[in-house]
Amino acid sequence: xDTTTPPLAPVxxxxxxKAAALRKRIVLPEGEDKxxxxxxxxxxxxxxxxxxxxxxPEKARAIAAAEGADISGIEIVDPVKDxxxxxxxxxxxxxxxxxxVDEAEARKSVADPMVFGVMMLHxxxxxxxxxxxxxxxxxxxxxxxxxxxxxxxxxAVSSFFIMVFPKPEQGDNGVLIFADCAINVxxxxxxxxxxxxxxxxxxxxxxxxxxxxxxLSFSTNGSAEHALVDAVKEAVRVAxxxxxxxxxxxxxxGDAALDxxxxxxxxxxxxxxxxxxxLIFPDLQSGNIGYKLVQRLTxxxxxxxxxxxxxxxxxxxxxxxxxxxxxxMACITALQTDPAxxx
Length: 343
Known about the structure:
Layout: H1 10-20, E1 25-28, H2 34-45, E2 50-54, H3 57-67, E3 75-77, H4 85-96, H5 103-111, H6 113-122, E4 128-131, H7 137-147, E5 158-164, E6 175-179, H8 189-207, E7 213-216, H9 227-242, E8 248-252, H10 254-258, H11 260-266, E9 278-280, H12 284-298, E10 301-308, E11 314-316, H13 323-335
Parallel strand pairs: 1-2, 1-4, 2-3, 4-11, 6-9, 7-8, 7-9
Antiparallel strand pairs: 5-6, 5-10
Helix pairs in contact: 1-13, 2-13, 4-5, 6-7, 8-9
């Protein structure tokens, strides 16, 4: 039986190579999860970043040993036993007392590795935060919104996935950007426009693509009339106005966005139709369903959700994330220490 490891997709290999040059400290709060422990071992062995685990050190080491993951030399922090626990609890109280949080609640909150890890980032003890292998997206986003907060000028935090396909002829040389598939349930047109612009710029910065942005709908170029279609049309109008340098078009159906012949027939004259590599879904239902269907039916890797708009690098994982996914997402988080790569 062939047990050789298949080569990494070029975009993933490039992300890992660039992260390795930075040697950033990435906190992984789910430090007792098998996949997280295996990923931490890879990150350290390959020199991709400096992983820091949160959890019970004895338990984490026992699980790692049972899984054959060498985590020797990796720092493991137990929040309530850490020398900074009381200080972080006091800081959290000051940050949240206006919301009615008292000192006892603050201590209890900071005992949670998900909150403690964000406090480490808040205090620059680490360079980035990555979780979600065990926890829901809201468990990652909520403490980050409370503590790290959105970057100045950002209207709303959003997310995107890098979809990496098994064959280069799928997508744009094997890559498509899908947004927003994890955060914004029903974005208003102005917010949807911002998601499209941010996702396009992030896709270019991380993956090297020249973005061509399609705002998706069940209608193409006026083929249907409905309030939902009107909302997407308005998002396209706003996005074009705010980012005249980007090729943006819509509203369009998925086939018109991706199939050149269909795109030419349904949306003649569009520079995006049939050639789109950034797909903006109109709402969270369609985005989340869409990326998971594509992932399962094509074997594509779904890297993300990559969060954009926070003051410091915070990222989420799908709870179905593999060890490789966690490794690559840690590298993306390291790269987002560059403010230009936080969206």
